[in-house]
Amino acid sequence: MTKTILRALAGERLPTPPVWMMRQAGRYLPEYRATRAQAGDFLSLCYNPELAAEVTLQPIRRYGFDAAILFADILLLPQALGVDLWFETGEGPRMSTVTTAAELAALRPDSAIHDTLAPVYETVRILSRALPAETTLIGFAGAPWTVATYMVAGRGTPDQGPAHALKTADRATFTGLIDRLTTATVEYLSAQVQAGAEVVKLFDSWAGSLQGDDFVEFAVEPARKITAELKSRHPGLPVIAFPRGAGERFAGLHKAIGADCIALDDGVTPEWAAAHVQSGGCVQGNLASHHMVTGGADLVRETRRVVEAFAGGPHIFNLGHGITPDADPENVQLMIDTLRGRV
Ligand code: CP3
How far is the CA of 23 from the centre of ligand 1 (A)? Predict the structure, then answer.
């Protein structure tokens, strides 16, 4: 096994950490903006296998990242389950809502999601042929809680208020939605693996707003079930879990979820995470994304700090969250040159 990402995920400490970036195919790259314009809009790009593969490959060609992440979106799964999805320019996603037992029951069965998602699997197949031999292909899905926050509200929300409200007002419908998303996510990720994804990552972007027992019930448990079922279907499949905003609750999560890697946001320091999380296995992260906008000596210093903090164990270098559209592509190169000792 020579791919550096797979070695780190298997628990190996590498002299130079392998690196990729969340949202590495995105609007900060002029070549992404050109291909997106060619596709027409964001969702058309997601469902066009040739162009989705092209934007996935763009940051690999430009920077030589150690992993490529499938270009798609976490909201394609609810769309495949039957909700209406569109993107308002400059604002973000909009969806028809699921807030009642009847609307939950009206979702399509898990077995029907592949009709809608077939182009995504085709993108994975194209990528597994086109990627350089040393580059790992990561598939992904949203975690049930995060996807549910969009389905209940019909859009992104600052505090996930509508999902928290439904959880209190109609617990049965809410847990039913989480359970549906848990089983559908297994089917979706399993199909990505069959098409050629070598690793899968679960994005729980809003896990941090779950308090107390809710964090265990709606962030940890669904991730544990998805991970266990995927590993039983695909023995040896590495799983990365990203419960963003978990804070001190990152400690112990490798074991609680059964994940090979816990991805860290920049709400925890790398020194704290090295002491309290990395003992459980590989960690991914966690340079603050704003350094890709601001660059300079701060970027170099903080990149070195993250590398040094995690040097005692398995580590995949990444940002704490996605790179933003206002980032300077030169700063990404500076980060990579710093990591690889060229600065
Ligand atoms: O990381 C990658 O490069 C892989 C592709 C990927 C996208 N979205 C492409 C995308 C991944 C892994 C995601 C995950 C995703 N999508 C999450 C979880 C991760 C996170 O960032 O917290 C969430 C919450 C979504 C839902 C979503 N998609 C929102 C809220 C938005 C609008 C916000 C924005 O950045 O404009 C999107 C759109 C989106 N997904 C873009 C990209 C590249 C920008 C679309 C464009 O080109 O205009």
Answer: 7
